[in-house]
Design goal:
There is one protein chain. The chain is an alpha/beta fold and about 280 residues long. It folds into two domains: about 140 residues, D-Maltodextrin-Binding Protein, domain 2, CATH 3.40.190.10; about 90 residues, D-Maltodextrin-Binding Protein, domain 2 (3-Layer(aba) Sandwich), CATH 3.40.190.10. Helix content is about 40%, strand content about 20%. The protein is built from eight helices and eight strands, in the order αβαβαβββαβαβαβαα. Strands 2-1-3-8-4-7-5-6 form an eight-stranded mixed β-sheet, sandwiched between helices. Helix 4 links the parallel strand 5 and strand 6. Helix 5 packs across helix 8. The longest helix has about 30 residues. The protein is globular. It starts with a helix and ends in a 5-residue tail after the last helix.
Length: about 280
């Protein structure tokens, strides 16, 4: 190895330049980190819901809602570490509310082939379903058109079910809660109750509903989406990440089964309630 003064000087100079280069890289990295925007943190999440999807209460007791929107909004907010504020909005108000920043997110049902409004991101929540029916097992109804002229029940929040009953030219009866709708099938007041098939399926698995589990192929499929303004990219990323955690198939199976258990109890309670007085 060459230990001459000239060689030692060259090594010292090279080491200095390496040190300077490393220092420059460290300074640049520090400057980038200081200038990089910090992740946003929210303490309140304003969620727009269709007016009919707001939590249901008749003033004396609370029924289970047919829609999942209100409960899912609460789950989403809690996952983001925020308090939820539900904002009732008509369909025509939802997009403008997002554009104007009046709400952070809108949870809404959208047809599977529907187009999204300009400057709005529609993030899938993992829930989708078509409409179907619950009927007595001895029914003579074999296809949708057999419901023409028949008495059909739907909940006040299910505009899609009401529109379908109208299109079938059925005699429609509307009730506030899904339990009240389903009770009419058990008592024979309604030939069919129109609800989401995804919610009827776990109900039909219950022993006490086997005699009322006649159904029809699902129609008019739609999905639940979380809409966010396209301008709010940080919020959209947070919501998308949250939905990946709380919108799994397993989580939705749990929600649907819990819904079926609650509604089945409410139907039972409504039927035996009058006999207890």
């Amino acid at each position: 190895m060459d230990h001459t003064p000239a060689t030692a000087k060259k090594l010292t100079t090279s080491r200095r330049w390496i040190g300077v280069a490393v220092l420059v890289v460290l300074l640049a990295a520090t400057a980038f980190a200081m200038n990089k925007p910090a992740p946003i943190s929210i303490t309140s999440l304003r969620v727009g819901l269709d007016v009919s999807a707001m939590p249901l209460s008749n003033g004396t007791r609370n029924y289970t809602d047919e829609d999942f929107e209100a409960r899912f909004a609460d789950e989403l907010a809690r996952h983001l570490g925020a308090e939820v504020t539900l904002v009732p909005l008509s369909r025509t108000e939802q997009t403008s509310a997002l554009w104007q920043g009046d709400v952070d997110v809108v949870l809404t049902r959208s047809a599977n082939d529907a187009t999204t409004a300009d400057k709005v991101l529609a993030l899938p929540t993992g829930f989708q379903s078509g409409l179907s029916v619950a009927m007595r097992s001895d029914t003579r109804v074999r296809q949708w058109r057999d419901l023409t002229g028949q008495v059909v029940c739907a909940s006040a929040s299910n505009a899609r079910a009401q529109a379908l009953a109208s299109a079938l030219d059925s005699h429609l009866k509307v009730f506030p809660a899904p339990a009240q709708v389903l009770a009419q099938v058990r008592t024979g007041e309604c030939t069919a109750a129109i609800l989401d098939r995804a919610q009827l399926d776990p109900l039909f698995q219950r022993k006490e509903w086997l005699k009322f589990s006649a159904t029809l192929p699902p129609t008019e499929p739609s999905r639940l989406v979380a809409e966010v303004s396209a301008d709010r990219t940080d919020l959209a990323a947070m919501v998308r990440a949250a939905l990946a955690q709380i919108g799994t198939t397993a989580r939705w199976t749990e929600r649907r089964e819990k819904w079926a258990a609650n509604v089945a109890f409410e139907v039972y309670f409504d039927q035996i309630g009058p006999d207890c007085h």
